[in-house]
Design a protein that fits this description.
heterodimer; A: 249 residues; mainly alpha; 0% strand; globular; B: 225 residues; alpha/beta; Rossmann fold; 2 domains; 9 strands
Protein backbone atom coordinates (compact mmCIF):
# COMPACT_ATOMS: atom_id res chain seq x y z
CA UNK A 1 0.00 0.00 0.00
CA UNK A 2 2.67 2.43 1.16
CA UNK A 3 4.82 1.34 -1.75
CA UNK A 4 2.16 1.95 -4.35
CA UNK A 5 1.47 5.40 -2.91
CA UNK A 6 5.17 6.16 -3.15
CA UNK A 7 5.31 4.86 -6.69
CA UNK A 8 2.35 6.98 -7.73
CA UNK A 9 3.87 9.95 -6.00
CA UNK A 10 7.06 9.36 -7.98
CA UNK A 11 5.11 9.12 -11.20
CA UNK A 12 3.33 12.35 -10.43
CA UNK A 13 6.64 14.06 -9.69
CA UNK A 14 8.05 12.86 -13.01
CA UNK A 15 5.04 14.20 -14.90
CA UNK A 16 5.33 17.51 -13.06
CA UNK A 17 9.02 17.62 -13.95
CA UNK A 18 8.32 17.30 -17.68
CA UNK A 19 5.53 19.88 -17.54
CA UNK A 20 8.05 22.16 -15.86
CA UNK A 21 10.54 21.53 -18.68
CA UNK A 22 7.78 22.36 -21.17
CA UNK A 23 6.97 25.57 -19.24
CA UNK A 24 10.61 26.65 -19.20
CA UNK A 25 11.05 25.92 -22.92
CA UNK A 26 7.94 27.90 -23.80
CA UNK A 27 9.20 30.78 -21.64
CA UNK A 28 12.54 30.73 -23.46
CA UNK A 29 10.92 30.60 -26.88
CA UNK A 30 8.32 33.11 -25.84
CA UNK A 31 5.95 32.62 -28.80
CA UNK A 32 2.62 30.77 -28.48
CA UNK A 33 2.70 29.82 -32.17
CA UNK A 34 5.85 27.75 -31.79
CA UNK A 35 5.26 26.35 -28.36
CA UNK A 36 2.28 27.35 -26.24
CA UNK A 37 2.76 27.26 -22.48
CA UNK A 38 1.23 24.37 -20.53
CA UNK A 39 -1.12 26.90 -19.00
CA UNK A 40 -2.40 27.97 -22.44
CA UNK A 41 -2.75 24.36 -23.58
CA UNK A 42 -4.64 23.25 -20.47
CA UNK A 43 -6.96 26.23 -20.48
CA UNK A 44 -7.72 25.50 -24.13
CA UNK A 45 -8.41 21.91 -23.05
CA UNK A 46 -10.75 23.04 -20.26
CA UNK A 47 -12.52 25.22 -22.75
CA UNK A 48 -13.02 22.30 -25.07
CA UNK A 49 -14.32 20.11 -22.28
CA UNK A 50 -17.17 22.51 -21.60
CA UNK A 51 -18.46 22.30 -25.17
CA UNK A 52 -20.97 19.69 -26.31
CA UNK A 53 -19.39 19.52 -29.78
CA UNK A 54 -16.17 18.23 -28.26
CA UNK A 55 -17.93 15.14 -26.97
CA UNK A 56 -19.73 14.52 -30.26
CA UNK A 57 -16.36 14.85 -32.00
CA UNK A 58 -14.70 12.47 -29.57
CA UNK A 59 -17.55 10.03 -30.06
CA UNK A 60 -17.22 9.99 -33.85
CA UNK A 61 -13.43 9.79 -33.86
CA UNK A 62 -13.59 6.96 -31.34
CA UNK A 63 -16.16 5.20 -33.50
CA UNK A 64 -13.84 5.44 -36.53
CA UNK A 65 -10.76 4.26 -34.66
CA UNK A 66 -12.55 1.36 -33.04
CA UNK A 67 -14.30 0.53 -36.32
CA UNK A 68 -11.00 0.20 -38.16
CA UNK A 69 -9.47 -1.62 -35.22
CA UNK A 70 -12.37 -4.04 -34.96
CA UNK A 71 -12.27 -4.86 -38.69
CA UNK A 72 -8.54 -5.45 -38.56
CA UNK A 73 -8.97 -7.76 -35.56
CA UNK A 74 -11.63 -9.83 -37.28
CA UNK A 75 -9.72 -10.18 -40.55
CA UNK A 76 -6.25 -10.20 -38.98
CA UNK A 77 -7.04 -13.00 -36.54
CA UNK A 78 -9.04 -15.11 -38.99
CA UNK A 79 -6.60 -14.82 -41.89
CA UNK A 80 -3.65 -14.99 -39.48
CA UNK A 81 -4.83 -18.33 -38.10
CA UNK A 82 -5.40 -19.68 -41.60
CA UNK A 83 -2.02 -18.42 -42.82
CA UNK A 84 -0.24 -19.78 -39.76
CA UNK A 85 -1.65 -23.24 -40.34
CA UNK A 86 -1.68 -23.42 -44.15
CA UNK A 87 1.59 -22.49 -45.79
CA UNK A 88 0.08 -21.74 -49.26
CA UNK A 89 -2.26 -19.21 -47.65
CA UNK A 90 0.73 -17.58 -45.98
CA UNK A 91 2.69 -17.47 -49.24
CA UNK A 92 -0.30 -15.90 -50.96
CA UNK A 93 -0.91 -13.17 -48.38
CA UNK A 94 2.64 -12.40 -47.28
CA UNK A 95 3.67 -10.19 -50.25
CA UNK A 96 0.47 -8.17 -49.83
CA UNK A 97 1.15 -7.67 -46.13
CA UNK A 98 4.76 -6.63 -46.79
CA UNK A 99 3.50 -4.02 -49.24
CA UNK A 100 0.85 -2.84 -46.80
CA UNK A 101 3.50 -2.40 -44.13
CA UNK A 102 5.73 -0.26 -46.33
CA UNK A 103 3.21 1.95 -48.17
CA UNK A 104 3.31 5.46 -46.68
CA UNK A 105 0.17 6.24 -44.67
CA UNK A 106 -0.35 9.40 -46.72
CA UNK A 107 -0.57 7.48 -50.01
CA UNK A 108 -3.23 5.25 -48.55
CA UNK A 109 -5.16 8.19 -47.14
CA UNK A 110 -5.15 10.04 -50.44
CA UNK A 111 -6.21 7.04 -52.46
CA UNK A 112 -8.89 6.25 -49.84
CA UNK A 113 -10.29 9.76 -50.20
CA UNK A 114 -10.90 8.93 -53.86
CA UNK A 115 -12.70 5.73 -53.00
CA UNK A 116 -14.76 6.39 -49.88
CA UNK A 117 -17.10 8.84 -48.19
CA UNK A 118 -15.14 11.19 -45.91
CA UNK A 119 -16.27 9.56 -42.68
CA UNK A 120 -15.23 6.10 -43.86
CA UNK A 121 -11.75 7.09 -45.03
CA UNK A 122 -10.20 6.96 -41.52
CA UNK A 123 -11.86 3.61 -40.82
CA UNK A 124 -10.37 2.14 -43.97
CA UNK A 125 -6.95 3.62 -43.29
CA UNK A 126 -6.93 2.43 -39.68
CA UNK A 127 -7.91 -1.01 -40.92
CA UNK A 128 -5.08 -1.12 -43.46
CA UNK A 129 -2.53 0.01 -40.88
CA UNK A 130 -3.67 -2.26 -38.03
CA UNK A 131 -4.45 -5.38 -40.04
CA UNK A 132 -0.81 -6.31 -40.89
CA UNK A 133 0.23 -6.01 -37.24
CA UNK A 134 -2.49 -8.30 -36.01
CA UNK A 135 -2.02 -10.71 -38.91
CA UNK A 136 1.74 -10.94 -38.34
CA UNK A 137 1.35 -11.48 -34.62
CA UNK A 138 -1.33 -14.10 -35.10
CA UNK A 139 0.86 -15.99 -37.60
CA UNK A 140 3.81 -16.02 -35.16
CA UNK A 141 1.46 -17.16 -32.40
CA UNK A 142 0.12 -20.03 -34.48
CA UNK A 143 3.64 -21.05 -35.41
CA UNK A 144 4.64 -21.10 -31.75
CA UNK A 145 2.06 -23.82 -31.10
CA UNK A 146 3.71 -26.81 -29.45
CA UNK A 147 4.10 -29.61 -32.01
CA UNK A 148 3.80 -32.10 -29.17
CA UNK A 149 0.28 -30.93 -28.41
CA UNK A 150 -0.65 -31.24 -32.08
CA UNK A 151 0.71 -34.78 -32.07
CA UNK A 152 -1.41 -35.53 -29.01
CA UNK A 153 -4.48 -34.27 -30.91
CA UNK A 154 -3.59 -36.49 -33.83
CA UNK A 155 -3.38 -39.58 -31.61
CA UNK A 156 -6.73 -38.82 -29.99
CA UNK A 157 -8.26 -38.07 -33.41
CA UNK A 158 -9.52 -34.62 -32.40
CA UNK A 159 -11.52 -32.90 -35.16
CA UNK A 160 -9.58 -30.26 -37.06
CA UNK A 161 -11.90 -27.42 -36.17
CA UNK A 162 -11.56 -28.20 -32.45
CA UNK A 163 -7.78 -28.37 -32.75
CA UNK A 164 -7.83 -24.89 -34.28
CA UNK A 165 -10.15 -23.54 -31.61
CA UNK A 166 -8.67 -25.20 -28.53
CA UNK A 167 -4.99 -25.60 -29.38
CA UNK A 168 -3.90 -23.18 -32.11
CA UNK A 169 -6.06 -20.27 -30.99
CA UNK A 170 -5.24 -20.58 -27.30
CA UNK A 171 -1.51 -20.97 -27.98
CA UNK A 172 -1.45 -17.82 -30.06
CA UNK A 173 -3.67 -15.78 -27.75
CA UNK A 174 -0.80 -13.95 -25.96
CA UNK A 175 0.64 -12.97 -29.36
CA UNK A 176 -2.76 -11.84 -30.63
CA UNK A 177 -3.34 -9.76 -27.51
CA UNK A 178 0.06 -8.05 -27.81
CA UNK A 179 -0.70 -7.35 -31.47
CA UNK A 180 -4.08 -5.87 -30.61
CA UNK A 181 -2.56 -3.52 -28.03
CA UNK A 182 0.01 -2.10 -30.45
CA UNK A 183 -2.53 -1.99 -33.30
CA UNK A 184 -4.94 0.03 -31.17
CA UNK A 185 -2.27 2.64 -30.39
CA UNK A 186 -1.41 2.97 -34.06
CA UNK A 187 -5.11 3.07 -34.87
CA UNK A 188 -5.53 6.32 -32.92
CA UNK A 189 -2.59 7.94 -34.70
CA UNK A 190 -3.58 7.04 -38.24
CA UNK A 191 -7.26 7.78 -37.71
CA UNK A 192 -6.44 11.35 -36.70
CA UNK A 193 -4.05 11.67 -39.64
CA UNK A 194 -6.67 10.39 -42.06
CA UNK A 195 -9.24 12.77 -40.55
CA UNK A 196 -6.94 15.74 -41.10
CA UNK A 197 -6.94 15.00 -44.83
CA UNK A 198 -10.47 13.71 -45.32
CA UNK A 199 -12.12 16.21 -42.94
CA UNK A 200 -15.30 14.43 -41.85
CA UNK A 201 -17.79 16.81 -40.20
CA UNK A 202 -17.27 15.65 -36.63
CA UNK A 203 -13.68 14.60 -36.23
CA UNK A 204 -10.67 15.40 -34.11
CA UNK A 205 -8.70 15.65 -37.35
CA UNK A 206 -10.84 18.51 -38.57
CA UNK A 207 -10.11 20.43 -35.36
CA UNK A 208 -6.40 19.72 -35.76
CA UNK A 209 -6.60 21.02 -39.30
CA UNK A 210 -8.50 24.15 -38.19
CA UNK A 211 -5.91 24.86 -35.50
CA UNK A 212 -3.28 24.88 -38.21
CA UNK A 213 -5.30 27.12 -40.51
CA UNK A 214 -6.19 29.60 -37.77
CA UNK A 215 -2.83 29.28 -35.99
CA UNK A 216 -4.73 28.12 -32.89
CA UNK A 217 -1.74 26.26 -31.48
CA UNK A 218 -2.97 25.86 -27.87
CA UNK A 219 -6.07 24.21 -29.37
CA UNK A 220 -3.81 21.84 -31.32
CA UNK A 221 -2.07 20.89 -28.10
CA UNK A 222 -5.39 20.47 -26.30
CA UNK A 223 -6.73 18.09 -28.97
CA UNK A 224 -3.45 16.21 -28.95
CA UNK A 225 -3.79 15.74 -25.21
CA UNK A 226 -7.30 14.41 -25.81
CA UNK A 227 -6.07 11.90 -28.42
CA UNK A 228 -3.26 10.69 -26.18
CA UNK A 229 -5.64 10.32 -23.24
CA UNK A 230 -8.16 8.41 -25.34
CA UNK A 231 -5.41 6.14 -26.56
CA UNK A 232 -4.29 5.42 -22.98
CA UNK A 233 -7.86 4.93 -21.83
CA UNK A 234 -8.73 2.40 -24.52
CA UNK A 235 -5.47 0.55 -24.08
CA UNK A 236 -6.28 0.20 -20.39
CA UNK A 237 -9.83 -0.96 -21.22
CA UNK A 238 -8.47 -3.52 -23.68
CA UNK A 239 -6.11 -4.90 -21.05
CA UNK A 240 -8.91 -5.11 -18.49
CA UNK A 241 -10.96 -6.95 -21.10
CA UNK A 242 -8.11 -9.47 -21.61
CA UNK A 243 -7.79 -10.02 -17.89
CA UNK A 244 -11.49 -10.54 -17.55
CA UNK A 245 -11.38 -13.02 -20.42
CA UNK A 246 -8.54 -14.95 -18.75
CA UNK A 247 -10.51 -15.31 -15.58
CA UNK A 248 -13.82 -16.36 -17.00
CA UNK A 249 -13.05 -18.32 -20.13
CA UNK B 1 -2.60 -59.45 -32.44
CA UNK B 2 -0.81 -56.43 -33.84
CA UNK B 3 2.00 -57.16 -36.26
CA UNK B 4 4.68 -55.08 -37.90
CA UNK B 5 5.73 -56.98 -41.00
CA UNK B 6 9.03 -56.26 -42.79
CA UNK B 7 8.87 -52.61 -41.84
CA UNK B 8 11.59 -50.23 -42.97
CA UNK B 9 11.94 -46.64 -41.86
CA UNK B 10 14.59 -44.07 -42.65
CA UNK B 11 15.00 -40.59 -41.22
CA UNK B 12 17.19 -38.70 -43.68
CA UNK B 13 20.28 -40.91 -43.91
CA UNK B 14 19.59 -42.77 -40.70
CA UNK B 15 18.16 -46.25 -41.24
CA UNK B 16 16.25 -46.91 -38.04
CA UNK B 17 14.31 -49.97 -39.11
CA UNK B 18 15.11 -52.46 -41.84
CA UNK B 19 12.77 -55.38 -42.55
CA UNK B 20 11.75 -55.22 -38.93
CA UNK B 21 9.20 -57.66 -37.47
CA UNK B 22 7.48 -57.58 -34.12
CA UNK B 23 4.08 -58.54 -32.71
CA UNK B 24 1.97 -57.43 -29.77
CA UNK B 25 -0.61 -59.64 -28.14
CA UNK B 26 -4.09 -58.31 -27.61
CA UNK B 27 -4.93 -57.09 -24.10
CA UNK B 28 -1.43 -57.75 -22.86
CA UNK B 29 1.18 -55.29 -21.67
CA UNK B 30 4.18 -55.52 -23.95
CA UNK B 31 7.36 -53.73 -23.06
CA UNK B 32 9.82 -52.31 -25.55
CA UNK B 33 13.05 -52.30 -23.59
CA UNK B 34 16.18 -50.67 -24.92
CA UNK B 35 18.53 -47.72 -24.77
CA UNK B 36 17.40 -44.16 -25.45
CA UNK B 37 17.43 -43.17 -29.08
CA UNK B 38 17.18 -46.76 -30.29
CA UNK B 39 13.87 -46.16 -32.06
CA UNK B 40 11.36 -47.49 -29.54
CA UNK B 41 9.18 -44.41 -29.88
CA UNK B 42 9.27 -44.71 -33.66
CA UNK B 43 7.84 -48.24 -33.42
CA UNK B 44 5.05 -46.97 -31.19
CA UNK B 45 4.35 -44.08 -33.54
CA UNK B 46 4.22 -46.44 -36.51
CA UNK B 47 1.68 -48.59 -34.67
CA UNK B 48 -0.34 -45.47 -33.83
CA UNK B 49 -0.20 -44.30 -37.42
CA UNK B 50 1.52 -40.99 -36.64
CA UNK B 51 4.66 -42.01 -38.53
CA UNK B 52 4.27 -43.54 -42.00
CA UNK B 53 6.46 -46.49 -42.95
CA UNK B 54 8.75 -46.48 -45.98
CA UNK B 55 8.17 -50.16 -46.62
CA UNK B 56 6.25 -53.03 -45.05
CA UNK B 57 2.92 -52.98 -43.27
CA UNK B 58 1.15 -52.90 -39.93
CA UNK B 59 -1.54 -55.49 -39.29
CA UNK B 60 -4.30 -55.59 -36.72
CA UNK B 61 -4.78 -51.87 -36.10
CA UNK B 62 -7.59 -51.18 -38.56
CA UNK B 63 -10.19 -48.87 -37.04
CA UNK B 64 -8.44 -49.07 -33.68
CA UNK B 65 -8.49 -46.10 -31.36
CA UNK B 66 -5.27 -45.13 -29.64
CA UNK B 67 -4.45 -43.34 -26.47
CA UNK B 68 -1.04 -42.22 -25.46
CA UNK B 69 0.75 -41.34 -22.24
CA UNK B 70 3.77 -39.31 -23.26
CA UNK B 71 6.97 -38.60 -21.38
CA UNK B 72 5.60 -35.17 -20.60
CA UNK B 73 1.91 -34.69 -19.74
CA UNK B 74 1.01 -32.87 -23.00
CA UNK B 75 -2.05 -31.23 -21.52
CA UNK B 76 -3.62 -27.96 -22.64
CA UNK B 77 -2.48 -25.60 -19.93
CA UNK B 78 -5.33 -23.13 -20.54
CA UNK B 79 -7.86 -25.83 -19.62
CA UNK B 80 -8.63 -27.43 -16.27
CA UNK B 81 -7.91 -31.07 -15.50
CA UNK B 82 -11.56 -31.88 -16.19
CA UNK B 83 -11.64 -29.96 -19.48
CA UNK B 84 -8.48 -31.67 -20.67
CA UNK B 85 -10.11 -35.08 -20.45
CA UNK B 86 -13.35 -33.67 -21.83
CA UNK B 87 -11.37 -32.37 -24.82
CA UNK B 88 -10.52 -35.87 -26.07
CA UNK B 89 -13.97 -37.32 -25.36
CA UNK B 90 -16.09 -34.60 -26.94
CA UNK B 91 -16.37 -36.19 -30.37
CA UNK B 92 -17.26 -39.56 -28.89
CA UNK B 93 -19.79 -39.29 -26.06
CA UNK B 94 -22.82 -37.20 -25.12
CA UNK B 95 -22.29 -34.67 -22.29
CA UNK B 96 -23.93 -36.74 -19.52
CA UNK B 97 -21.91 -39.81 -20.32
CA UNK B 98 -18.75 -37.69 -20.54
CA UNK B 99 -19.24 -36.17 -17.12
CA UNK B 100 -19.75 -39.61 -15.63
CA UNK B 101 -16.61 -41.04 -17.24
CA UNK B 102 -14.40 -38.05 -16.45
CA UNK B 103 -15.45 -37.90 -12.82
CA UNK B 104 -14.88 -41.60 -12.29
CA UNK B 105 -11.38 -41.48 -13.80
CA UNK B 106 -10.41 -38.33 -11.94
CA UNK B 107 -11.51 -40.10 -8.80
CA UNK B 108 -9.36 -43.08 -9.68
CA UNK B 109 -6.25 -40.91 -9.97
CA UNK B 110 -7.28 -39.11 -6.76
CA UNK B 111 -7.69 -35.71 -8.35
CA UNK B 112 -11.43 -35.18 -7.82
CA UNK B 113 -10.96 -32.11 -5.72
CA UNK B 114 -8.56 -30.62 -8.26
CA UNK B 115 -10.76 -31.16 -11.27
CA UNK B 116 -11.36 -27.46 -11.88
CA UNK B 117 -7.72 -26.46 -11.42
CA UNK B 118 -5.88 -25.20 -14.46
CA UNK B 119 -2.95 -27.43 -15.41
CA UNK B 120 -0.50 -24.68 -14.48
CA UNK B 121 -1.70 -24.90 -10.90
CA UNK B 122 -0.98 -28.63 -10.65
CA UNK B 123 2.34 -30.25 -9.82
CA UNK B 124 4.20 -32.30 -12.43
CA UNK B 125 3.12 -35.56 -10.83
CA UNK B 126 -0.52 -34.47 -10.72
CA UNK B 127 -0.40 -33.40 -14.35
CA UNK B 128 0.98 -36.80 -15.32
CA UNK B 129 -1.90 -38.43 -13.42
CA UNK B 130 -4.36 -36.34 -15.45
CA UNK B 131 -2.58 -37.57 -18.56
CA UNK B 132 -2.97 -41.17 -17.37
CA UNK B 133 -6.65 -40.60 -16.59
CA UNK B 134 -7.12 -39.11 -20.06
CA UNK B 135 -5.53 -42.15 -21.69
CA UNK B 136 -7.80 -44.58 -19.84
CA UNK B 137 -10.95 -42.47 -20.11
CA UNK B 138 -10.56 -42.49 -23.88
CA UNK B 139 -12.13 -45.67 -25.31
CA UNK B 140 -8.92 -46.80 -26.96
CA UNK B 141 -8.07 -50.31 -28.02
CA UNK B 142 -4.37 -49.69 -27.83
CA UNK B 143 -2.59 -47.67 -25.18
CA UNK B 144 0.94 -46.47 -25.77
CA UNK B 145 3.05 -45.45 -22.80
CA UNK B 146 6.27 -43.75 -23.79
CA UNK B 147 8.46 -43.62 -20.68
CA UNK B 148 5.59 -42.09 -18.71
CA UNK B 149 7.35 -42.40 -15.35
CA UNK B 150 10.60 -40.82 -16.41
CA UNK B 151 11.68 -37.94 -14.22
CA UNK B 152 9.24 -38.73 -11.41
CA UNK B 153 10.71 -39.35 -7.98
CA UNK B 154 10.59 -42.86 -6.51
CA UNK B 155 7.47 -42.29 -4.42
CA UNK B 156 5.51 -40.72 -7.28
CA UNK B 157 6.70 -43.39 -9.63
CA UNK B 158 5.50 -46.25 -7.45
CA UNK B 159 2.17 -44.44 -6.94
CA UNK B 160 1.79 -44.03 -10.69
CA UNK B 161 2.66 -47.66 -11.32
CA UNK B 162 0.08 -48.93 -8.86
CA UNK B 163 -2.48 -46.52 -10.33
CA UNK B 164 -1.68 -47.84 -13.77
CA UNK B 165 -2.11 -51.46 -12.67
CA UNK B 166 -5.41 -50.59 -10.98
CA UNK B 167 -6.74 -48.87 -14.07
CA UNK B 168 -5.51 -51.47 -16.50
CA UNK B 169 -7.09 -54.27 -14.44
CA UNK B 170 -10.40 -52.45 -14.53
CA UNK B 171 -10.24 -51.59 -18.19
CA UNK B 172 -7.95 -53.99 -20.03
CA UNK B 173 -6.47 -53.09 -23.36
CA UNK B 174 -3.39 -53.71 -25.45
CA UNK B 175 -0.52 -51.73 -23.99
CA UNK B 176 2.81 -50.84 -25.59
CA UNK B 177 5.07 -49.78 -22.79
CA UNK B 178 8.36 -48.11 -23.62
CA UNK B 179 11.06 -47.92 -21.00
CA UNK B 180 14.70 -48.45 -20.22
CA UNK B 181 14.08 -48.90 -16.52
CA UNK B 182 14.54 -52.53 -15.43
CA UNK B 183 12.21 -52.38 -12.40
CA UNK B 184 9.37 -50.83 -14.40
CA UNK B 185 9.80 -53.35 -17.18
CA UNK B 186 9.72 -56.36 -14.89
CA UNK B 187 6.93 -55.14 -12.64
CA UNK B 188 4.49 -54.02 -15.31
CA UNK B 189 4.91 -56.17 -18.37
CA UNK B 190 3.68 -59.52 -19.58
CA UNK B 191 6.13 -59.64 -22.44
CA UNK B 192 9.44 -57.82 -22.79
CA UNK B 193 11.22 -57.23 -26.07
CA UNK B 194 14.86 -56.26 -25.77
CA UNK B 195 15.70 -53.96 -28.64
CA UNK B 196 19.17 -52.93 -29.78
CA UNK B 197 21.43 -52.01 -32.65
CA UNK B 198 20.99 -49.89 -35.75
CA UNK B 199 18.99 -50.83 -37.75
CA UNK B 200 17.00 -52.05 -34.78
CA UNK B 201 16.91 -55.74 -33.87
CA UNK B 202 14.79 -57.70 -31.44
CA UNK B 203 17.58 -59.23 -29.38
CA UNK B 204 15.37 -61.22 -27.05
CA UNK B 205 11.75 -61.85 -26.15
CA UNK B 206 11.06 -62.56 -22.48
CA UNK B 207 7.81 -63.76 -20.97
CA UNK B 208 7.22 -62.53 -17.44
CA UNK B 209 5.25 -64.72 -15.08
CA UNK B 210 4.62 -63.77 -11.53
CA UNK B 211 7.06 -66.06 -9.76
CA UNK B 212 9.84 -64.16 -8.09
CA UNK B 213 12.37 -66.62 -9.46
CA UNK B 214 11.44 -65.77 -13.00
CA UNK B 215 11.45 -62.05 -12.25
CA UNK B 216 14.94 -62.16 -10.79
CA UNK B 217 16.18 -64.07 -13.81
CA UNK B 218 14.67 -61.53 -16.19
CA UNK B 219 16.09 -58.67 -14.18
CA UNK B 220 19.56 -60.08 -14.47
CA UNK B 221 19.13 -60.55 -18.23
CA UNK B 222 17.93 -56.97 -18.64
CA UNK B 223 20.72 -55.60 -16.46
CA UNK B 224 23.36 -57.44 -18.43
CA UNK B 225 22.17 -55.77 -21.64
Amino acid sequence: MMNSILRNKNKLLIILFWILVWEILSLIIGQEIYLPSPHAAFSALLNLLTSKDTYITIFFSTYRTLGGFFLSCVFGIFLGIMSGIYKPMYDLLNPLIIIMRTIPVMSIIIIAIMWFKDTNVPIFVAFLMCFPIIWTNTVSGIRSTDVKLLQMCEVYKIKRIRVIKSVYFNSSLPYIQAGMVSALGIGWKVTSAAEVLSLPKYSIGRFLYDSKVYLEIPGLFAWTIIIVSLSFLFEALLKIFFKFGDKYD
Amino acid sequence: MIKLIDVSKKFDDLTLLKDFNISFEKNKITCLFGPSGAGKTTIANIVAGIVPVDKGCVEGVDSSLFSYVFQEPRLLKWYSAYENIDFVLKDIYKPDKRAEIINSYLKMVELSQYKNYKIDALSGGMAQRVSLARAFAYPSHILIMDEPFKGLDIKLKSDMISLFIKMWTKSQRTVLFITHDVEEAVNLSHVIYILKNRPLDVVDKLIVDNTSNNKEKIKSILLSD
